[in-house]
Write the structure tokens for this entry.
Amino acid sequence: MTVPAHSAMISRRRGLIQVSLFLTALILRLTLFIIASSDEARFIRPDTQTYVRPAINVIDHGAFSASPEEPLEPEFDATPGFPAFIMAVFALFGRSITHVALVLLIIDSTVPVILFRIGDRWRSWRTGAAAGALYAASLLPVISCQHVLSDSLFTFFLSLQILFYLRFFREGRSRDLLIMVLLIGIMTLIRPTASYWIFILLGLLLFVRPLPGNRRMSRILISAVIFAAICTPWIARNVHQGAGFRLVTNTAKTVRYYFAAAVEAENTGTPAGKIRNEWKAADIEYFESNPDLFPDEDSRASYKTEKGLEIIREDPLVFVKLSARPYVLFPALDAFYEHIGVSAGGKGTLDILTREGPWAAVRHYFDGRTWLLIPVLPWILLLGVIYLACVRGLFICFREKAWGALLSFVFFALYYIALLGPLTLSRYRLPAMPAIVLMAGLGITSWKRFKE
């Protein structure tokens, strides 16, 4: 076979794989979408209004607020990225939560294609195909993109970030670095957990890239300026409206009402949900009775952060123990059954999980109908295969002394899991899934019969 003919055959094969991955992901997601489409509430989660209401208020009143009625108090618990996406969907297709879920579903169906390109560039087309297929069929991505939350949109941009990260650190082109910084900025406005990534990137530019001093420093400076240009206007808005020099105030709530409450629950045996509600009520009363001490959202957020950290500092080992629990790695069975209308949330299952363990939580959530695990057993087994293959992929990188790949896995997978602390909802694992399935793709395709 001539070289041009061989190249054409390889190109057709890669094209066919990418189309197949997209269609597989799309069909799986559309199937569940159709099942749930008769009830719009299936696409709504407790946090959905945090994004939808500001989008509606910006359209109707020009105010970024989560208030359902006037006065439209400024909203500080969310960044503008995902509400802006919702506004765009509303403008194109009308104000329907179902339409937003459908667009998210289509966008998420492209992630396996992006992962294929990453794997193909990193190792081989087989690694990319395996990674894309694992993501396309995994339960968590299939379910997450059905819900009007920032999770799947953030993961889409994250997969693009990994692609341009790989391209830049392999080829050194400034254009790829520029795109990567733009992506980190967009991701930060969608979910602020990405904000720390700019420091990881600047550190890599400083210590990893073999560039002359002047060129290295100019790239660091330009990257920092571009990121600041994207995020500073939103921080300035928050400062101007009394929320302080921060992207969101939701971090303060997480530290006090979730991290610290989990530590308190572990020490006292009281359910974390009960502690959380008591603290919220007490804080509101305290703020209202001391208006001079807490005149704005900045002072209130600072108080919540300090009170939360105070409890964590008293028992740091308890916090570490709670953060080390693997519950976030469990399959998203609750989200699946709620999505198809078989079960419902709000049962206090997380408290049961924390205090009594996984099996007690399963029995509690399903009201004793543990046979409901049988229909989703293939998804449970698939997740087990992903984790085992991921471990094997990490071992291969260690054996080959591929320190760059191992470090990248820390930055793109363990980073997002470590930030969760004691939070145990499986949906928060989604940003780590692209890196996990890429490493699993290596683990699966590195057997002798799969080698190039």
Q: What stands out?
A: The two ends are 18 Å apart (CA to CA). The mean pLDDT is 90.
